[in-house]
Here is the input.
Amino acid sequence: MRRNRTGIGTCIGLAAALAAVLLLSGCGISLPRLTLNPQELYALPELPAKYTELNGLINDILSSGAEYAAPTSGANIQPVQLVDLNGDGQEEAVAFFRNPNDEKPLKIYIFTAQGDGYVQSDLIEGSGTAIYSIAYRDLDSDGRQELVVGWKATAELQVLEVYTQRSGGTEALLRTDYVKYAITDLSEDRRQELVVLRSGEDGDSVADYYSWQGDGSLASRSSARISATMAELSQQGRVTQGMLRGDLPVLFVTGVTDQGVAVTDILTLRGGELANIALSELTGVTGVIAPFCSLYPMDIDGDGLTEVPCPVPMQTPWEENSYRQIEWSSYDENGVPALVMRTYHDLDDGWYLELPEAWNGQVYVSRSVFASESMMTFYTRAGEEDRPFLRIIAVTGTGREARAVRGGRFVLSRQPEVIYAAELLEGNDGWEDGVSEEQVRGAFNLIQNEWLLSSDS
Here is the structure.
């Protein structure tokens, strides 16, 4: 799907900036010779006629008492968004408003390009306090984008609606309350289904699976119970699309309790029905429960499968120990885990290190913070002696280039505001499980912000 563009005001700014670049640039670009009246240099460039007309249509809506009401969550949060909804190569304009005087105050206008201008082609109205989110996805692979709209009905209730583009205009396919949802292809039929997470009538948490029917409708086909409450999902919770061993598509639903515990359910299809393969037959709740460490399921080793993190305390000589290594496990279709990798994550400084298997139970860490450097030192024990063998340093501030290579330090990664360096210490010499500079470089990774991106909700 084409990434949405910004609103009309930004278009004007971009046009002005482009004109300035063309007129004033000293770059060696071959441009047509222009004959200009000096007075014309003081005039703003004119927008294409279709955008001027669109701006007029929007101003008419604002003049009627409406105000912009851009979606408050998700990737698409501009008040006016340009997207090709019908696959004809021309972008429609989707604009979001609130008119408090109307019975249904929330408005989503759709304007279609026609000739050199735009005309209003549809209007979607909703009740509530805000437009929470919108996603554009071709769910049924017909070349047209469906609109998946989340409405903030009340402070406690969100409503999800899906609209499709039909010959007679925009048609609503479904409406349901929800806390989170995911657009996914669990059936692997090249058509996208919906999994909607909500509270059931008895207070339990439910995942509803919506799939396409023969008549072109999108209907609930099956449901599965999940362990995480809606409150646990709504704050730090995530829905992550991934793969099981055996290359089966899956959703990992992670809720976070008030006690800092991550509760993860694993949803996939069995015989065409949605199933939670993580539920224990003995307890009736998921067996995938671990301390929350601000990490979520991901493909940590790049093998195409998804691993779930589980923090495990590192054995240290100190009574109070808050340092933990992360054990990452993949799952099969029966919910059976298999350990894939151990890492140490320094979330404060934004990096992680893949830990060799031989280090398990033999290595611990401590952190030191200074004005422009923070250090994580790795230790091993020789009898009763603590032996530091590796130090990773995040170097910031002025003079960081020189400080990153002083002494025995070597650079791991250069970033705009920080240089990551490492140093092999005396404990590494002669230790049978010691590492080389090349091995440290190969095990070092930056923590990527997109790890936190998961569902379409």
In short: Confidence is low (pLDDT under 50) at residues 1-41. The first helix runs from residue 8 to 24.
